[in-house]
Amino acid sequence: MTRSTALITGASRGIGAAAVIALARHGIALIGIHFGHDRDAAEQTAERIRSRGATPVLIQADLADGEKAAASIAYAWRAAITANGHRGTDVLVSNAGINGAQALAELDTVTYARVQAVNLTAPLFLLHHLSDSLNDDRRVIAVSTGYTRVAAPTHLACTASKAWLEGVLRAVSPELARRGITGQTIDATGGSSL
Protein backbone atom coordinates (compact mmCIF):
# COMPACT_ATOMS: atom_id res chain seq x y z
CA MET A 1 0.00 0.00 0.00
CA THR A 2 1.48 3.33 -1.06
CA ARG A 3 1.27 6.18 1.40
CA SER A 4 2.29 9.64 0.32
CA THR A 5 1.14 12.13 2.99
CA ALA A 6 1.54 12.28 6.76
CA LEU A 7 0.81 14.92 9.39
CA ILE A 8 2.40 14.68 12.83
CA THR A 9 1.73 17.05 15.71
CA GLY A 10 4.58 17.97 18.00
CA ALA A 11 7.02 16.95 15.30
CA SER A 12 9.85 19.42 15.78
CA ARG A 13 11.74 17.29 18.31
CA GLY A 14 11.62 14.13 20.40
CA ILE A 15 9.22 11.34 19.43
CA GLY A 16 7.57 13.51 16.77
CA ALA A 17 10.85 14.32 15.03
CA ALA A 18 11.85 10.66 15.11
CA ALA A 19 8.47 9.76 13.60
CA VAL A 20 8.74 12.18 10.68
CA ILE A 21 12.29 11.05 9.92
CA ALA A 22 11.15 7.41 9.93
CA LEU A 23 8.22 8.27 7.66
CA ALA A 24 10.54 10.05 5.23
CA ARG A 25 12.87 7.06 5.28
CA HIS A 26 9.91 4.84 4.36
CA GLY A 27 8.95 6.93 1.35
CA ILE A 28 6.29 9.36 2.57
CA ALA A 29 6.52 12.23 0.10
CA LEU A 30 4.76 15.09 1.94
CA ILE A 31 5.15 15.43 5.69
CA GLY A 32 3.40 17.98 7.89
CA ILE A 33 5.58 19.04 10.81
CA HIS A 34 3.40 20.73 13.39
CA PHE A 35 5.22 22.69 16.08
CA GLY A 36 4.12 24.92 18.91
CA HIS A 37 6.87 27.45 19.49
CA ASP A 38 10.31 26.20 18.48
CA ARG A 39 10.61 27.12 14.80
CA ASP A 40 14.38 26.50 14.78
CA ALA A 41 13.88 22.89 15.89
CA ALA A 42 11.09 22.46 13.31
CA GLU A 43 13.33 23.80 10.55
CA GLN A 44 16.14 21.45 11.57
CA THR A 45 13.72 18.50 11.45
CA ALA A 46 12.45 19.72 8.07
CA GLU A 47 15.99 19.77 6.72
CA ARG A 48 16.56 16.21 7.93
CA ILE A 49 13.50 14.90 6.08
CA ARG A 50 14.28 17.02 3.01
CA SER A 51 17.66 15.27 2.84
CA ARG A 52 15.73 11.97 2.70
CA GLY A 53 13.71 13.12 -0.30
CA ALA A 54 10.49 14.18 1.44
CA THR A 55 8.83 17.59 1.23
CA PRO A 56 8.29 19.14 4.67
CA VAL A 57 5.42 21.46 5.53
CA LEU A 58 5.90 23.51 8.69
CA ILE A 59 2.66 24.29 10.52
CA GLN A 60 2.74 26.41 13.67
CA ALA A 61 -0.12 26.38 16.19
CA ASP A 62 -0.38 26.49 19.97
CA LEU A 63 -2.47 23.43 20.86
CA ALA A 64 -3.46 25.13 24.11
CA ASP A 65 -5.98 26.90 21.84
CA GLY A 66 -7.74 23.53 21.46
CA GLU A 67 -10.29 23.42 18.64
CA LYS A 68 -9.09 26.73 17.17
CA ALA A 69 -5.56 25.32 16.81
CA ALA A 70 -6.91 22.10 15.31
CA ALA A 71 -8.92 24.02 12.73
CA SER A 72 -5.89 26.14 11.83
CA ILE A 73 -3.65 23.07 11.41
CA ALA A 74 -6.26 21.26 9.31
CA TYR A 75 -6.71 24.28 7.04
CA ALA A 76 -2.95 24.71 6.50
CA TRP A 77 -2.45 20.97 5.94
CA ARG A 78 -5.25 20.67 3.38
CA ALA A 79 -3.84 23.67 1.51
CA ALA A 80 -0.36 22.10 1.48
CA ILE A 81 -1.71 18.79 0.18
CA THR A 82 -3.44 20.54 -2.70
CA ALA A 83 -0.49 22.83 -3.46
CA ASN A 84 1.85 19.83 -3.66
CA GLY A 85 -0.41 17.78 -5.93
CA HIS A 86 -1.44 15.12 -3.43
CA ARG A 87 -4.87 13.89 -2.34
CA GLY A 88 -5.96 13.51 1.28
CA THR A 89 -4.10 12.35 4.36
CA ASP A 90 -2.62 8.87 4.58
CA VAL A 91 -1.16 9.00 8.10
CA LEU A 92 -2.29 11.23 10.97
CA VAL A 93 -0.24 11.09 14.18
CA SER A 94 -1.36 13.03 17.26
CA ASN A 95 1.93 13.09 19.11
CA ALA A 96 2.06 16.49 20.83
CA GLY A 97 1.39 16.46 24.54
CA ILE A 98 2.21 18.12 27.83
CA ASN A 99 2.34 16.77 31.35
CA GLY A 100 1.33 19.52 33.77
CA ALA A 101 2.69 17.43 36.62
CA GLN A 102 0.69 18.09 39.77
CA ALA A 103 -0.45 15.96 42.68
CA LEU A 104 -4.08 16.09 43.80
CA ALA A 105 -3.42 18.79 46.41
CA GLU A 106 -1.63 20.97 43.81
CA LEU A 107 -4.14 20.60 40.98
CA ASP A 108 -5.37 23.93 39.58
CA THR A 109 -7.94 24.67 36.90
CA VAL A 110 -5.59 26.62 34.62
CA THR A 111 -3.01 23.83 34.34
CA TYR A 112 -5.73 21.20 34.06
CA ALA A 113 -7.50 23.08 31.25
CA ARG A 114 -4.26 23.60 29.33
CA VAL A 115 -3.34 19.90 29.53
CA GLN A 116 -6.82 18.88 28.33
CA ALA A 117 -6.68 21.37 25.45
CA VAL A 118 -3.29 20.14 24.23
CA ASN A 119 -3.64 16.42 24.92
CA LEU A 120 -7.33 15.79 24.17
CA THR A 121 -9.27 18.68 22.63
CA ALA A 122 -6.80 19.57 19.88
CA PRO A 123 -6.22 15.95 18.73
CA LEU A 124 -9.94 15.16 18.81
CA PHE A 125 -10.87 18.21 16.75
CA LEU A 126 -7.93 17.71 14.37
CA LEU A 127 -9.34 14.25 13.62
CA HIS A 128 -12.79 15.83 13.30
CA HIS A 129 -11.58 18.47 10.84
CA LEU A 130 -9.58 15.98 8.75
CA SER A 131 -11.89 12.95 8.95
CA ASP A 132 -13.57 13.55 5.59
CA SER A 133 -10.20 13.94 3.85
CA LEU A 134 -8.50 10.87 5.37
CA ASN A 135 -7.76 8.44 2.59
CA ASP A 136 -9.34 5.00 2.80
CA ASP A 137 -7.24 2.11 4.11
CA ARG A 138 -4.82 4.38 5.98
CA ARG A 139 -3.73 5.07 9.62
CA VAL A 140 -4.62 7.28 12.59
CA ILE A 141 -2.22 7.08 15.53
CA ALA A 142 -2.38 8.74 18.93
CA VAL A 143 0.63 8.81 21.24
CA SER A 144 -0.51 8.10 24.77
CA THR A 145 1.24 7.30 28.05
CA GLY A 146 1.79 4.39 30.38
CA TYR A 147 0.24 6.55 33.10
CA THR A 148 -3.16 5.35 31.87
CA ARG A 149 -2.31 1.88 33.22
CA VAL A 150 -0.18 2.55 36.31
CA ALA A 151 -0.60 4.74 39.37
CA ALA A 152 0.94 8.15 38.68
CA PRO A 153 -0.20 10.40 41.54
CA THR A 154 1.66 13.46 40.26
CA HIS A 155 0.34 13.20 36.71
CA LEU A 156 -3.41 13.53 37.15
CA ALA A 157 -4.27 15.89 34.29
CA CYS A 158 -2.04 14.05 31.82
CA THR A 159 -3.43 10.66 32.84
CA ALA A 160 -7.01 11.88 32.45
CA SER A 161 -6.40 13.48 29.05
CA LYS A 162 -4.55 10.51 27.58
CA ALA A 163 -7.06 7.97 28.93
CA TRP A 164 -9.84 10.01 27.33
CA LEU A 165 -7.87 10.24 24.08
CA GLU A 166 -7.50 6.44 24.04
CA GLY A 167 -11.24 6.15 24.65
CA VAL A 168 -12.08 8.60 21.89
CA LEU A 169 -9.98 6.72 19.35
CA ARG A 170 -11.61 3.48 20.44
CA ALA A 171 -15.04 5.10 20.08
CA VAL A 172 -14.42 6.30 16.51
CA SER A 173 -12.70 3.10 15.40
CA PRO A 174 -15.89 1.48 14.00
CA GLU A 175 -16.64 4.59 11.92
CA LEU A 176 -13.07 4.72 10.58
CA ALA A 177 -12.98 0.96 10.02
CA ARG A 178 -15.85 1.21 7.53
CA ARG A 179 -13.34 2.99 5.28
CA GLY A 180 -10.48 0.63 6.13
CA ILE A 181 -8.80 3.24 8.34
CA THR A 182 -7.12 1.71 11.35
CA GLY A 183 -6.61 3.57 14.60
CA GLN A 184 -3.98 2.84 17.19
CA THR A 185 -2.73 4.36 20.40
CA ILE A 186 0.97 4.02 21.11
CA ASP A 187 2.31 4.38 24.62
CA ALA A 188 5.23 6.81 24.58
CA THR A 189 7.10 4.22 26.65
CA GLY A 190 6.66 1.55 23.98
CA GLY A 191 3.32 -0.21 24.53
CA SER A 192 0.27 0.01 22.30
CA SER A 193 -3.43 -0.71 22.34
CA LEU A 194 -6.40 -0.88 19.94
Could you please describe the fold and organization of this structure?
With 194 residues, the chain is of the alpha/beta class. The chain has a single domain, classed as NAD(P)-binding Rossmann-like Domain (Rossmann fold), CATH 3.40.50.720. The protein has 5 helices and 7 strands. It has a 7-stranded mixed sheet, with helices on both faces. Strand 6 and strand 7 form a beta hairpin. Helix 1 runs parallel beside helix 2 and helix 3 packs parallel to helix 4. The relative contact order is 0.14.
Q: What's this model, at a glance?
A:
The chain is α/β, with parallel strands linked by helices and 194 residues long. The chain has five helices and seven strands.
Tags for this model:
about 190 residues; alpha/beta; seven-stranded mixed sheet; 5 helices; globular
Q: What is the share of helical residues?
A: 40-55%
Rg measurement, Å: 16 Å
Query: What is the CATH C-level name?
Result: Alpha Beta
Identify the CATH architecture. 3-Layer(aba) Sandwich
What is the count of DSSP helices, taking H or I runs of 4+ residues? 5
Estimated share of beta-strand residues: 15-25%
- The coarse overall form would be globular
Q: Under CATH, the topology is which?
A: Rossmann fold
- Ranges where pLDDT stays below 50 over 5 or more residues in a row are 190-194
- Total strands: 7
Taking the alpha carbons of the first and last residues, their distance comes to 21 Å
Spatially, the strands of the biggest sheet line up as 3-2-1-4-5-6-7
The major β-sheet equals:
7 strands, mixed
